[in-house]
């Protein structure tokens, strides 16, 4: 009996092992992929493959011959800047410099791709790329590791050059010494420009037809480059980025990021990673397929050079850091291109919790200036939500946007509404009544007439010119607002209205909240308690509420944005 059981276990074990091998073999069989011409073949010497029943692990780091650093004396370079005993290792770079220095410049990292990526094949005639890395006071060890990882893990024929833009770092040698490495060029800014103008400077001197942008503290992973260049070669309007893995700022461990994320944002133009919408996730049968993304994180992407130029490079009036990724993302989508994340391309990045460098104009003001420029040029009427979410942006300087507006017109780009409907429908628009705006009907605006009621009057402008009586919808609920008394009650924004039951007139009133709620019904505004709609009937007479009738001009109200 015991023997029978032992035999059964042995048979099951053998069957399990055979099954596993069969499964792996199946997955390495050639498959066709519908949206990529990158054909798949059995193992190409990377990742896992089965050779006559043996499982072999191949690592790029070991199969690629040691690269030459040319004239650079790596040891001396690193030793030239070292943490002094007792110094806080986080002080200068907001990551643990001691750990970074200790690691060396050539460490192996785990191939974090889905195993199926290893069997993809790419065109043999991919165009080469110029790698553009801008930095300001980057640590030598992270900068060198970024460069070496590129040289170690990219097919040499694809690297035309590595352009370093030293954005006025304190020590010019950080950059100059690295130019001793073959293919590495160093440009130094004569003053601090910020990453946006620095990248444009790099792009302008690039000699390859494809641009690849990297932050100065990255480590690229196995076969990171081919998938991105392939997608751009197939369609030059695609702007592609890798999955960005996490390099721990404490111990520099290389950690795989989730493959189910894309770039998103909230109305304050704060970037965030978010889950791919569930329907798209369910539809993804092939984990090697690109992921459409509404925005890119900004630092690591590949873009055709003439497309970059055609689309207007970057907004060079943006300073130091921030916002340029929204501006670029909106522009790419709205002007005929697309953005995607390629799961078979992985690049590690040291994510930090604070900026280790100064902002000459202050961090907050710079971010507001940059995002305000993006919102003003690209977001059309949706910019109101940006201002509601970031009230401190109102009135802050952002320079002239005339050139960018002209660019948008010249490129004949689609409206932001199109972007909202087609690219990012998941971004919830705050409810219409929750927006700070005056209400317009034809050329006239809703206005409070003392305590007598509401009427229509000439729209008197917004901001400083706004008359206190001009009625606005309240930002906090579905109430109409206006008039001095109640404005004071509601911190300059809301006042209340109620129905005078005898005449069904609408008057400003400061009490009885429940009587003052209105909700949009098409373009009409419905008084919630009575179910009737706000109606101008005669333009000069008092406003009343009447039976709701869709599409009637006297019941049609258009919110006019207040910036
Ligand atoms: O004045 C400056 N001059 C520079 O050259 C300020 C910065 N820089 C350099 C800096 O050395 C670095 O190489 O610019 C690069 C980006 O600066 P970081 O690393 O401080 O920025 P980050 O990683 O916090 O910011 C992300 O968002 C930025 C918005 O402006 C840029 O687009 C960064 O490139 C971007 N980084 C990434 O997308 C990597 C993934 C992180 C995420 C999310
Ligand atoms: Mn960074």
Automatic annotation (TrEMBL):
UniProt-listed Enzyme Commission number(s): 2.4.1.-
Full protein name: Polypeptide N-acetylgalactosaminyltransferase
GO CC list: Golgi membrane
Pfam family, one: Glycos_transf_2
Glycosyltransferase 2-like domain segment(s): 130-308
Similarity annotation: Belongs to the glycosyltransferase 2 family. GalNAc-T subfamily.
Main location: Golgi
GO MF assignments: carbohydrate binding; metal ion binding; polypeptide N-acetylgalactosaminyltransferase activity
UniProt-annotated stretches for the region Disordered: 32-52
Cofactor requirements of the protein: Mn(2+)
Pathway: Protein modification; protein glycosylation
Keyword field: Disulfide bond, Glycosyltransferase, Golgi apparatus, Lectin, Manganese, Membrane, Metal-binding, Signal-anchor, Transferase, Transmembrane, Transmembrane helix
Annotated gene: VPS39
Taxonomic source organism: Sparus aurata (Gilthead sea bream)
